[in-house]
Structure formats: C-alpha cells, structure tokens
C-alpha cells in the first residue's frame, strides 16, 4: 500500500506484525526500525534487505540486525513505521556470534554498524562472484516406465534413446539428481533438437539452477603427506601441552608464543590445530598478507586435508567459493590475511595470529579494527583459544602476558636443529669511504653480494622506499618539490618503473616525474628550481634506483624488485614463488620482504636505510625498527649454510640498532617499557585519536578547538582520567587538498575512553561541522 507521497505505509488495520531493526551501509551510527510486509516474512537477522531511506525514500540496502519481539501499536511508537521493500538474502550472512562480533567492533571502534557489517563479508561473496546459471535435465517418468518408453515412444528415435538411457543410467529421476545440459550433450553427443523433442514429448524436464564455479585454490599436487614425524623439543612440548589442555577444556584463553625465527613456532601451531581438528573444531590461521605464499599454504596442506584459503591473490570467484566452502562446513582449517578473522566458521576452536606484532593487522579504513584484538574478542564469544605468535611480540602483547597475566606466555628460547643465529654486522655510512661516495651500496655489502652470488646463494636487499629517489631537491634553496594537494615531498620515479597504464608523460625527455605517495598525483620534474633557477638534484635512493644499480653492478645475476609499484598483489605471490624456486638471485624491495618468508638458500640480507624508520616522529618508531631488523635477520641462514646480515646506518651507536644486532629482545623490551612508562604511553595507557579534516584550514582550526573544549567538558563532568592534548596538525598536515588535525587522547582505561567518546558523539548541543574520524588504539600517529 502506498500513501499520497508514494511512501509505503502499514495496512490500515493496525500495527505491523513483524518489525526488524536495520542498519545501512553508510556513515551513520544509528539503527532504524521497519515493518516487514507479510509476503516478505520471514526475514533473518544478519541478512540484507532493501528499504526506503533518507530524503526521497530511496530504496537503500541495509542489514537486518535484529528481529524485534515486541511489536508496538503505531500510537505507542509515536511515528509511522515504514516497510521494507525487498529481502536480498534468504539466509543470514552471519552466524549469531559473528553478528554479535560485528556489533562489538562497531561499538568498540566507533565505526558505523552498517559499514562494519559490510566490511566483514568479502565483496566477492556479496556479489555472488562466479555463480553461474545452468540448466539441469532430469527424467519425468518413473523407473518402472523405462522399458515401455523405450519400446513405444522412442522406438524409432535412436538418438533420443541414447540420451534417455544416459539419464536412466545416471539415476536422474528427479530435478535434484539431474544432469547439467552441457554435460549431457558432451556425454551423449546429442544436439539441442534431440533434447527439445524429448521435452515436448514430456519425457524429460529442464530446470534452471545456480552453481558456483571456480578453479580450486589448493593445487592437486599438494597432497597430504604423512611427513616424517618431527620429535618436538621440550619447549615445544610444554607449549603444546598447555594448548592441548586449553582446547580440550573448550574455554576462552589467550596465549603468546614467543620464539625467534626457526624456533619451531609453526610446528606448534600445526600440532595445536591438529588437536582442535581431532576435537571436531575448526581453526583459523591469520598471517600477514605477504606471507601467504604457496610455500606456506603448501606446508599446511601437507598436514591438513580440508583447508580453505582467503587472501588477496585469489580471483573473486575463488574467494566466493572458498567462503561458501566454509559456510557449507567443508573446511577444518582456514588460512588467510587480516579479514579471515571474519571467516564464517561455525565450530571454531582456535585462532592463530602469526607475527602478531605486524602493523598490517590494523585496518586503516572504517572499521579501523586490529585483527589481533578482534581475533581475541571472537575467541571470547566462541569459547575458543587465541594463540598469538611472534619472534618480537608487540609491547602491548608482552605487557598483557608478563605484567597483567592476561595472556599465558609460552616461550621457545632456542632455534631447532641448533642453527646459529645469523651474524649481524653494521656498516657506518657516516664515515670513511662510504660517506663520500654516491653509492647506495657500501663496499662491504657489494663484496658480500659478490661472494654470495659466486657461491650460488641468494640475496635479499631491503630499502624501505618506493620510487627512484626520495626527493627532488634544490641545493641552493634547500627546498624539495612538494605535492600541490598534500603537505609532503614528492618522490622521483623513472618512467616504466611504475604501474602499467600511466604513460601520460611519453613526450617528456627527462623520462621521469614526481609522484605523491599519498594522493598519487604526478607532475613533470622541472630541470631547474622554480625559485632560483639552479639545477635540481635527486636525493635519497629508492627501490627503483637500487634495482638499476644492481643490474649494472651484477650483470650476470637475475634481479627482481618487489614493492607496491612493481606489482599487483597477485603478481607478488608469483614473484616470491619464483624466488623460492631459485629463478631469481637478488630480490630487492621494501619492507614487505621482511615478513615470515622461508627461503633456505638465502645467506645474505642487506638493510640499506635502517635509520629511515627511526626518523619517523612516532613513539613506536624504535619498536618498529627493532622488529624490522630482527625479522630481517630471520630471513637468512634458514638452511644448511650460515646466514649474514649487513645493516647500513648513519648511526651505528643507536641503542635500538645495537640491541637488534645482539638479538636482545629482553633488553629492548626493558628499555622501551621504561620510556613508555615515564611518558605515560601505551601499553601503560590507552590511546585514541580524533582526527578532524576539512578543506578550509580556518574552519578546521575553529572546529578542532571546539571539539577539544567539548571533550574537556565531558571528561570533567564525568570525572574521567583522560589527558586530552591540544589539537595539532596531523603528521601529514594536508592530504588530497584536505587539511587534517589531531586531538590525542590518553587515558588509563579503555572504558573511560569509550565513555568520553560516546558522550561526545551523542552530545546534543554539539553540531559537527567538519569530518571527524576516531582511531581507537591507533598504531601510527
Ligand atoms: P618458526 O615458525 O619458529 O620459524 P618452524 O616451525 O617453521 O619455526 O620450524 C623451522 C624448521 O624446523 C621447519 O622446517 C620445521 O619443520 C623444523 N622443525 C620444527 N620443530 C622441529 C623439531 N622439534 N625438530 C626438528 N625439526 C623441527
Ligand atoms: Zn599528494
């Protein structure tokens, strides 16, 4: 029924019989109640619907989050209920607990609930990627009529007999046992007209069905191997014992497995997962995206039969079909990157978060969740165990394990097989020959590369900067070219080294341009400084230049570069596979290379600008650098031959670099804890950032001041112990032509922080005039 304005109104007889609570995939914190017309009932919580919404009542997609029991009369409700117009999913996309998890994320991270739920389901699943419509053919007769049909109706139709017999032999006596039309044609060699004539005689029927077609993700040759049974060492044994007991008790708990690379952590994961599977449970293993190469997947495939894989190297239809396999309970073990924490497993017993300290577990879009923390929450909701693993646990996790005793600490202090830790060596780039040369590679590192290549070994080189050179710089004005949209310097890129499809500067002779790594804008590089007319110079090397140098200096070697310019996600899986096969000698790239990869033939790792990370004005820069250098060390010496790490730095005396060289995690943690405690920083406190942005700097400043005052008032009113710092420009003060300011909040408890922000969001007297995002537990400033 529609009213005068085309709005759908409930039947005149009174209250709607069914009312649901809906959230829309928009930046809105609220929920909305709608009636469900009888013909669309039932609707399940967690499924998508369409309902008139907003100005003009546009049909808008939303999720039903709750079916309301209590149906009020319109008079009691005080407003007229609108009705939904469509049900998109007949089945819920979420299990009950996942819906609960989604609501928790929305609440904890201040993310709009509709956007949060939408982010939990891969786009490929929502679109139904890879689902094809097929025609299914089946018999309309009963088995006891077969003979008479053959001897009468089909007596003289030889071709029709063949098709008919094939259907009879396949037992296709009903639609659900039917045969796909194209298969039937292939099997019998019949034409469409034969099928048509059988249909017109009423002997066979045809029905449409949808099937999900896709290539298998796990290749057939990854067969299950009853691998030579590895004898766990005593540390592994005691860790496993603890985990097995927790899994058997089926209770919620978190443990932190701390062990250097090659201490046998993955072996412990595998055994714990094995136990979970034996108990009839499922396990999810989260890995940083880059580590999801075929070698990792192969290692798990050799130990478990029913594996599903979710990562960005899959095609859309593969992603959908892997997801559907989990929905249909066909997988015991699920391996994936951050978002696999949302895999629709229904018998979850264990989540493993490998390399739990990795910054890539934090999502930098709405909802800004941390994969590790969501994994822990999910385990709590499902009475499952959460196992975090790392060689260099985050300060947060080690604090939770050691000081607060929230996590059980499990330690693997030795490398298995008594592999020695690789030799770490520092090259001081601030003095001697290297300081005065233009070379990116120190003499020491060049010699070491030569030796490794000579011995047929492989080399990994890390340079944490994309592009060709860091700045285009005027030596006289001391100014670098900056982006017109963002407050950052531009990076010089050579043509041909960037993503395909950007050859817009083909007429430019100098062959390069300056690109903004934040908004992607590109400009021609002027030859002379626009201010003084002096010739501009390129400063600071990027991965492109490194690649060029390597190709010049080591002409016999096969060199490849990995960074986000050189490839799309699907390619880097291939590149890493090529490297593990030995088809590449030197792999150069940005820090994505440092993560959890296992290449036994790598004997040398070089870090070219180890100081860059330390220079970032973020209180975690020391932690990042320590982790990076330790991770890098773990990339070498994993085979029979000993490994070597060469670190180029201009500050060889830096404590963090020294501690990393000695592999002294304890020393690092103790020092860092002391600093954080004194400065009242996480993990001793909780942090949140309110980031305001607007095109007008003036408005932004006024609004930041206004929000700052509001937060102060609320904090005072509620008696919260939260330090609210005055608004300051963000680390990148302008991005995409939009100015940004941060208000940093530091407090003793997460609960106080949420109270403050919740009150600010719903404050009636405050009207928000600029965009504000909240980043809870931010991991970068
Ligand atoms: P991590 O995950 O800590 O880097 P892994 O579990 O990958 O360590 O172990 C490194 C290598 O040692 C793997 O090849 C693994 O099969 C092997 N390994 C693990 N535990 C043992 C053990 N107790 N005895 C012998 N080999 C082991
Ligand atoms: Zn820019």
Automatic annotation (TrEMBL):
Stored Pfam families: DEAD, Helicase_C, PriA_3primeBD, PriA_C, Zn_ribbon_PriA
Top-level EC class: isomerase
InterPro entries registered for this protein in UniProt: DEAD/DEAH_box_helicase_dom (IPR011545), Helicase_ATP-bd (IPR014001), Helicase_C-like (IPR001650), P-loop_NTPase (IPR027417), PriA (IPR005259), PriA_3primeBD (IPR041222), PriA_3primeBD_sf (IPR042115), PriA_C (IPR041236)
Keywords for the protein's UniProt record, in alphabetical order: ATP-binding, DNA replication, DNA-binding, Helicase, Hydrolase, Isomerase, Metal-binding, Nucleotide-binding, Primosome, Zinc
GO molecular function, one term: 3'-5' DNA helicase activity
Cofactor note: Binds 2 zinc ions per subunit.
Domain of life from the UniProt record: Bacteria
NCBIfam families cross-referenced by the UniProt entry: priA
SUPFAM superfamilies: P-loop containing nucleoside triphosphate hydrolases
Subunit description: Component of the replication restart primosome.
Alphabetical list of PROSITE patterns matching this protein: HELICASE_ATP_BIND_1 (PS51192), HELICASE_CTER (PS51194)
Originating organism: Limihaloglobus sulfuriphilus
EC number of the protein: 5.6.2.4
Binding site for Zn(2+) 2: 483, 486, 516, 519
GO cellular component: primosome complex
HAMAP family per record: PriA
CDD domains found in the cross-reference section: DEXHc_priA
Residues that coordinate or bind Zn(2+) 1: 474, 477, 529, 532
Family of the protein in this entry: Belongs to the helicase family. PriA subfamily.
Protein name: Replication restart protein PriA
Taxonomic lineage of the native organism: Bacteria, Pseudomonadati, Planctomycetota, Phycisphaerae, Sedimentisphaerales
């Amino acid at each position: 029924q529609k009213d005068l304005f085309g709005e759908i109104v409930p039947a005149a007889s009174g209250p709607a019989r069914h009312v649901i609570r809906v959230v829309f995939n928009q930046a809105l914190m609220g929920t909305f109640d709608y009636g469900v017309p009888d013909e669309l009932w039932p609707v399940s919580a967690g499924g998508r619907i369409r309902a008139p919404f907003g100005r003009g009542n546009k049909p808008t997609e939303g999720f039903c989050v709750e079916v309301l029991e209590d149906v009020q009369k319109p008079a009691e409700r005080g407003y007229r209920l609108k009705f939904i117009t469509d049900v998109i999913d007949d089945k819920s996309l979420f299990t009950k607990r996942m819906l609960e998890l989604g609501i928790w994320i929305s609440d904890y991270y201040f993310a709009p609930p509709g956007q949060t739920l939408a982010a939990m389901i891969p786009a490929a699943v929502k679109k139904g990627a890879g689902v094809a419509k097929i025609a299914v053919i089946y018999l309309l007769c009963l088995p006891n009529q077969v003979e008479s049909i053959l001897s009468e109706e089909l007596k003289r139709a030889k071709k029709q007999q063949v098709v008919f017999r094939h259907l009879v032999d396949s037992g296709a006596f009903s639609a659900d046992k039917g045969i796909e039309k194209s298969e039937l044609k292939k099997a019998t060699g019949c034409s469409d007209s034969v099928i048509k004539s059988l249909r017109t005689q009423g002997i066979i029927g045809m029905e449409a069905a949808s099937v999900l077609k896709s290539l298998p993700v796990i290749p057939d040759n990854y067969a299950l191997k009853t691998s030579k049974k590895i004898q766990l060492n005593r540390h592994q044994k005691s860790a496993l014992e603890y985990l097995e007991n927790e899994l058997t008790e089926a209770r919620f708990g978190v443990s932190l497995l701390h062990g250097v690379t090659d201490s046998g952590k993955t072996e412990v994961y595998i055994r714990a997962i094995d136990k979970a599977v034996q108990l009839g449970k499922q396990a999810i293993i989260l890995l940083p995206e880059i580590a999801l190469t075929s070698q990792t997947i192969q290692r798990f495939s050799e130990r478990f039969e029913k594996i599903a894989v979710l990562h960005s190297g899959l095609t859309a239809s593969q992603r959908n079909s892997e997801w559907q396999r989990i929905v249909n309970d066909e997988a015991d073990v699920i391996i994936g990157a951050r978002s696999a924490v949302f895999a629709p497993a229904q018998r979850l017993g264990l989540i493993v978060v490998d390399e739990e300290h990795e910054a890539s577990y934090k999502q930098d879009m709405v909802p800004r969740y941390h994969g590790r923390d969501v994994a822990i929450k999910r385990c709590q909701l499902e009475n499952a165990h959460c196992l975090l693993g790392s060689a260099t646990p985050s300060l947060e996790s080690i604090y939770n394990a050691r000081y607060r005793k929230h996590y059980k600490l499990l330690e693997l202090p030795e490398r298995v097989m008594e592999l020695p830790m690789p030799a770490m060596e520092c090259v001081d780039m601030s003095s001697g020959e290297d300081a005065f040369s233009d070379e990116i590679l120190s003499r020491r590192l060049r010699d070491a590369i030569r030796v490794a290549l000579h011995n047929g070994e492989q080399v990994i080189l890390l340079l944490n900067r994309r592009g060709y050179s860091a700045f285009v710089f005027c030596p006289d004005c001391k100014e670098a070219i900056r982006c017109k949209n963002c407050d950052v310097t531009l990076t010089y890129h050579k043509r041909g080294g960037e993503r395909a499809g950007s050859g817009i500067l083909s007429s430019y002779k100098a062959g390069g341009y300056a690109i903004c790594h934040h908004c992607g804008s590109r400009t021609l590089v002027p030859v002379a400084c626009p201010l003084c007319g002096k010739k501009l110079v390129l400063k600071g090397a990027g991965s492109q230049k490194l690649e060029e140098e390597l190709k010049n200096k080591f002409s016999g070697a096969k060199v490849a570069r990995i960074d986000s310019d050189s490839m799309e996600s699907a390619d880097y899986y291939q590149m890493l596979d090529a490297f593990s096969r030995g088809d590449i000698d030197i792999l150069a790239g940005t820090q994505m290379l440092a993560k959890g990869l296992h290449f036994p033939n790598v004997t040398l790792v070089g870090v070219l600008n180890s100081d860059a990370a330390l220079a970032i004005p973020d209180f975690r820069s020391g932690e990042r650098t320590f982790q990076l250098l330790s991770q890098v060390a773990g990339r070498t010496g994993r085979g029979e031959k000993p490994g070597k790490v060469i670190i180029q730095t201009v500050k060889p005396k830096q404590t963090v670099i020294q501690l990393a060289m000695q592999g002294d995690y304890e020393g690092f943690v103790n020092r860092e804890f002391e600093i954080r405690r004194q400065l009242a920083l996480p993990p001793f406190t909780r942090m949140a950032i309110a980031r305001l942005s607007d095109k007008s700097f003036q408005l932004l400043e006024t609004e930041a001041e206004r929000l700052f005052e509001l937060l102060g008032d609320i904090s005072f009113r509620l008696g919260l112990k939260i330090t609210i710092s005055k608004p300051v420009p963000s680390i990148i003060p302008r991005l995409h032509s939009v100015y940004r300011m941060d208000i940093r909040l530091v407090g003793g408890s997460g609960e106080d922080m949420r109270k403050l922000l919740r009150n600010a969001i719903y404050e009636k007297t405050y009207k928000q005039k600029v965009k504000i995002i909240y980043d809870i537990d931010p991991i970068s400033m």
